[in-house]
Amino acid sequence: MKNDPVLIEVPEEIYSERLLLAVPPSGIGPMLHEIVAESMDRIQPWLPWAQEQPSVEECEARMRRGRAKFILREDLPYLIFDRDAKGRRLLGGTGLHRMDWGVRRFEIGYWIRSSAERQGYVCEAVNALSDMCFKVLGARRLDIRADENNARSRAVAERCGFTLESIVRNESLSPAGEVRNMCVYVKLA
Predict the structure, then answer these.
(1) Is residue 164 within 8 Å of 109, Cβ to Cβ?
(2) Are 39 and 113 in contact (CB under 8 A)?
(3) From CA 89, how far away is CA 20, in angstroms rounded?
C-alpha cells in the first residue's frame, strides 16, 4: 500500500507562540469534563457532541477514541493547551477532519472554553494547524465549515485568511434538528 495514510508522519505536537496543540493523552478526561461543563451554553448550539454534559468517563473514552483515530489517520484531533510556565491549562480543541489524503484536502474544526474566548487563541491554533498542513502534510486545500449563523466561527475563518467560497443551503441539521446553511471557507496551497 504505497499511499497508506497510516504511514504518513503527522506531528503529535504543534507549537505556536502561546500554544501547544497535542494529540489527546490518556487521563485527560477529568480536565475535558471540566471545560465542557464551563462552556456548554456556548458550544451546545454548534457542536453535536455537546448536547448533554458528558461524564468524566465519556470524556476519557472520547479522547482515547480520538487518539486511536489519529494513529489510523482517520481523524486528526488536537487539544489546545496554553504554554504558560506555571503549568499547562487545557483551553479547547481543534483538529483536521473529513480528510481526503489523495487530494490532500483537510477540514479544520475548533472550539474554545468560555474563559479563554476573545484572547486570540483560536486564530493562533488555526494558523499553527494550517501552517503544519501546508508545510508537513502537503495540503492543497484547507476548509473551515461554519454554520451561517455562527458569526464568531466565521470571523475566525476570515481573520485567518480563509476565503468564503460558498454558502451551501439546507446542508445539514443543527444539533437542535433545524435545517441550516453552511458557509464553506477555503485556503489553497
Answers:
(1) no
(2) yes
(3) 10
The number of residues in the chain equals 189
22 φ/ψ angles, rounded to the nearest 5 degrees = -140, 145
Closest CA to 121 of 145, 146, 91: 91
Q: What is the pTM of this model?
A: 0.90
Please give the Cα distance from 43 to 30 (Å, whole number).
Answer: 18
CA dihedral 160, 140, 99, 142 (to 10 degrees): 10
101's CB contacts (< 8 A; 6+ apart) are 3, 5, 8, 73
Q: What is the CATH T-level fold of the domain 5-139, as seen in this structure?
A: Aminopeptidase (3.40.630)
Per-domain boundaries in the chain = 5-139
Question: For the segment 14-50, what is each residue's pLDDT rounded down to a tens digit?
Answer: 999 999 999 998 898 888 888 888 777 777 666 666 6
The separation between CA 157 and the C-alpha centre of its own chain, rounded to angstroms, equals: 12
